[in-house]
Design a protein that fits this description.
212 residues; alpha+beta; 4-stranded antiparallel sheet; 6 helices
Length: 212
């Protein structure tokens, strides 16, 4: 089983989901994507996570991001669990959940970690660009729920830095100043960053966010 690394093409697969059969690459189309796994249905932390994602779908949509969840349980279980999520989280699940009973997708994406549990998926997150390349990988232990505000923040950074010669500093949020890429010469800065810049050190140059 090959390890997936940043910059690799996200492996394609066909699987059954709560919204019908999905061919992953075709389903993504020209969108970005988040694929995130859950240890099992009817688990407390996952229930809060899927409810949160449903509430955040509009924010993901603004960023051209599609979201799909996965666990190793079957479709009947998923549909029953969705009823619980909608009831307890006061929302409506509005994205597909993959039924990965044969663990094909989990194995393809290395979501089974024997040191944690050799049967269930860990809390993996893959952010995939519109070019089908893996942009971010985060793996959480089963006991820790994910921070979806952080995923939105990272996607804002990924989409910004894909088109502008900047990086985002620690604790950056959309709208904050950015770091000019070290590969950009000082003579290029006026044309690339007409809003101006501040040189803290020759290697640390800040500029207002260029896509606002």
């Amino acid at each position: 089983m090959a390890t997936i690394r940043l910059g690799d093409e996200a492996p394609n697969f066909t699987a059954q989901s709560t919204e019908g059969e999905i061919n992953f690459h075709e389903w993504l189309g020209d969108s970005w994507g988040i694929l995130f796994s859950h240890p099992a249905d009817y688990t407390p932390v996952c229930t809060t996570e899927l409810g949160t994602v449903a509430k955040y779908k509009e924010e993901f949509g603004k960023r051209n991001v599609k979201v799909v969840a996965l666990s190793v349980d079957g479709l009947d279980s998923h549909h029953g669990w969705i009823n619980d999520i909608n009831e307890t989280q006061n929302t409506t699940v509005n994205f597909p959940i993959i039924a990965d009973e044969d663990k094909k997708v989990s194995t393809l994406y290395d979501m089974i970690h024997p040191n944690a549990n050799n049967k269930l998926t860990v809390r993996s997150v893959f952010v995939i660009g519109s070019d089908k390349k893996v942009k971010l990988i985060i793996t959480y232990p089963a006991s820790t729920g994910r921070n979806f505000d952080e995923l939105l923040r990272v996607i804002d950074s990924l989409q910004l830095t894909a088109f502008h010669k900047v990086a985002t500093p620690a604790n950056w949020n959309n709208g904050d100043d950015c770091v000019i890429s070290p590969a950009v010469g000082n003579d290029e800065i006026p044309s690339l960053f007409p809003k101006g810049h501040k040189e803290v050190k020759p290697y640390l140059r800040l500029t207002p966010q260029p896509n606002l």
